[in-house]
Amino acid sequence: MIEFTLWDIARNLLLAARWTVLLSLIAFVGGGIVGLLLLAMRVSPLPWLRRMVVLYVELFQGTPLLMQLFLAFFGLPLLGVDVSPWVAATVTLTLYTSAYLADIWRGCVEAVPRGQWAAGASLGMTFGQQLRYIVWPQALKIAVAPTVGFLVQVVKSTALTSIIGFIELTKTGTMITNAAFRPFPIYGMVALLYFAMCFPLTWYARVLERKQKVGQHR
């Protein structure tokens, strides 16, 4: 058994939390970019594009994230593609995030009254111009709160990447526990760090939701 002081444990967990934050940001930003492309395809007038996006979203929402991580990390090497835990984690979480964000944003776009589309068409705007100048600016106001709320889910989902060997907060906590045999204080600190990362986002999402409701009643 290795002796760890509480400061040693806290310092190592804080260092590991950096990778949790970095992975969350990469997955969220990358997923947002892919999600925007999927959203444009989802609201496209072309039926085959819409069906492709529906299949993509259903695939990632209908299967466990843990299974997706396993397929990326253990399945790709069977096809001759070697991937590190970092690559498998970032790619899988990015695709997973994009599927959910595309679905969230689709609901926000559909919340914009259809009359707004008709108004843009009557002005001679193309489909892309209607999206860019009329629909997306209105949908953005609706989408901010649920998008921030989903970021909390992304942060917590990074814990699953410890299963494939990615050394983030949860994995570091497990490694220290195996060496020090002090699970309660160690996992207690891990839980507090996740809370410290997620609570401000949850609080901000609630503030945005309240502001949105106030704006709707004016």
From TrEMBL:
Q: Where in the cell is it found?
A: Cell inner membrane; Cell membrane
Q: What PANTHER family does its record include?
A: BLR6398 PROTEIN, MEMBRANE COMPONENT OF AMINO ACID ABC TRANSPORTER
Instruction: Give TM regions.
Output: 20-41, 142-166, 186-208
Membrane topology (UniProt): Multi-pass membrane protein
**Protein's name in the database:** Amine acid ABC transporter, permease protein, 3-TM region, His/Glu/Gln/Arg/opine family
UniProt domain ABC transmembrane type-1: residue ranges: 17-205
Record-linked SUPFAM superfamilies? MetI-like
Asked if the Swiss-Prot or TrEMBL record annotates the protein with the keyword Ligase, the reply is no
Q: Which family does it belong to?
A: Belongs to the binding-protein-dependent transport system permease family. HisMQ subfamily.
Is the keyword Transport in the record? yes
Origin organism is Paraburkholderia piptadeniae
Which GO BP terms apply?
Answer: amino acid transport
Instruction: Show the GO MF annotations.
Output: transmembrane transporter activity
Q: Which UniProt keywords apply?
A: Cell membrane, Membrane, Transmembrane, Transmembrane helix, Transport
* Gene3D superfamilies from the UniProt entry: MetI-like
Major subcellular site:
membrane
Q: GO terms for CC? A: ATP-binding cassette (ABC) transporter complex
Which NCBIfam families does the record cross-reference, listed alphabetically? HEQRo_perm_3TM (TIGR01726)
